[in-house]
Amino acid sequence: MSSIGVPPIPAANSIFLRDRLRAETRPAHDALDTRLAHVDVSSVDGLAVFLRMQARALGVLSECDAGNISKLMIVDLAHRARTDLAVLGHQVPPVAVPPVDAARLHPDAVDYVLAGSRLGNAMLKKRWRSSTQPDVRHAAAFFTAPDYLDVWKTFCTGAGRGDARLPGNETIVTDARAVFALFSHYAADAAEEKVPALA
After folding, report:
1. Any residues with CB less than 8 A from the CB of 97 and at least 6 apart, and which?
2. For residue range 99-143, what is the model confidence (pLDDT) as tens digits?
3. Phi, psi at residue 67, to the nearest 5°?
4. Domain tally for the chain?
5. pLDDT confidence tier of residue 197, bands split at 50, 70 and 90
6. What residue numbers bound the domain in which 188 lies?
7. InterPro entries given for it (predicted)?
8. Helix segments in the chain, DSSP class H
């Protein structure tokens, strides 16, 4: 996850749902970016923190409604994160009680956050590629995944073009904030916990 890198647009001036989402989820998005700014994916420890966050959050989101267009991407990226953690010799501690019920999240909210995150993945991928540590470069599954930009384009030309002023969109905005908060929650956990190495 990384900043999409676009300026906020005031919700009052929004025409499309994606514009409203961008404006009204900005604080939650910025909070996640601030937390990840201290995670160096070019180091073994930093990459492990990033991958533990991804493995846990994506694992939770893989239980979301099958109607979201990002479903296959989520499952693939979760698997890649777990694969890289195994390469680094790390376990992924089980999630006791997820902070959100993924099955109740609106599919469009999940699509907005997850598909949009791929736009910022190039910056993180560049940092990962800059590493001189062999273990980091060998943990290559996550950062060699497809860019999945087609999923973002599908969202933007579909649900993202919906009228931002429809009352039902309140749920989508609220749930998108919850998805950002989910990643922030697991980023904090991953940075603080001591994880046993694989035997």
Report:
1. none
2. 899 999 999 999 999 999 998 898 999 999 999 999 999 999 999
3. -75, -10
4. 1
5. low
6. 12-29+39-192
7. Haem_Oase-like_multi-hlx
8. 17-24, 26-36, 44-61, 71-87, 107-117, 121-129, 134-138, 149-157, 169-192
